Amino acid sequence: MTSEICEKWVQKLDKRMIAECRKIALVSDSCPAHPKEINPKLKNVTVFYLPQNTTSKLQPMDQEVTQNFKIHSPKRVVITALENNQSMPKINLRESISESSKEWN
Description:
Distance between the termini: 24 Å
Shape: elongated
Order of helices and strands: HEEHHH
Number of domains: 2
Oligomer: single chain
Helix content: 40-55%
Radius of gyration: 20 Å
Number of strands: 2
């Protein structure tokens, strides 16, 4: 994702919230893809930015989920290859997403 895509998404979200007569708060972290300043013409979406380097402190579960996912996901590919007496497979994007989905479930 790029900051341009994110900004367009937030603007589209604002239009949807206007149509639904709803006002929402959007909390954004310091991800480089999130624009530092969103168009101030938003009417029904208010964007709040978390201070930098606080996501791991405010959302400690994120760290654990990410860490476990990184540890266990590659094991599935290696175990599958070993069980089938194969060398390490070359995995394309589609297969990678499929394996990630299996691991997540």
